[in-house]
Amino acid sequence: MWKLSQLQSDTINALKDHECIAMEVASQELVVFNLHGQRFAFRNRCPHQNKKLLTDQSHCFDETFSLVECPLHGAQFLPSSGACVSGPCLGHKLERYQFIWQDDDLFLSRSEH
Q1: Burial degree of 75 (CB within 10 A; 0-12, 13-18, 19+)
Q2: Phi, psi angles (nearest 5°) of residue 45
Q3: Contact of 85 with 96, CB cutoff 8 Å
Q4: H/E segment holding residue 9
Q5: Strand partners, 39
Q6: pLDDT of the chain along its 113 residues, tens only?
Q7: Verdict on whether the full-model pTM lies above 0.85
């Protein structure tokens, strides 16, 4: 589990709905996004060819804003679990992280699910 800096916490909390950012936490490159007020974090790599999911700092969803989409080959993932539901890596998952609040501090941990 890693404690996020105040700047990282503020950046994550400031995300608007459907907004995505790439950030590095404890040498891990992550994509973090806000979907309907809930924040999600995944390793910024598609399981298909280990390419970045977020390349332009703003777009990580399909046109309906219901699935995370790889810009390289169009693989699509459920935002809540990271499970691939369409594309060349069907049956695989994104590496998921979870946010944990303790007092006023924000931590990030690898998810077991």
Answers
A1: buried
A2: -145, 135
A3: no
A4: helix 6-13
A5: 34
A6: 899 999 999 999 999 999 999 999 888 899 999 999 999 999 999 999 888 888 766 678 899 999 999 988 889 999 999 999 999 999 999 999 999 989 889 999 988 65
A7: yes
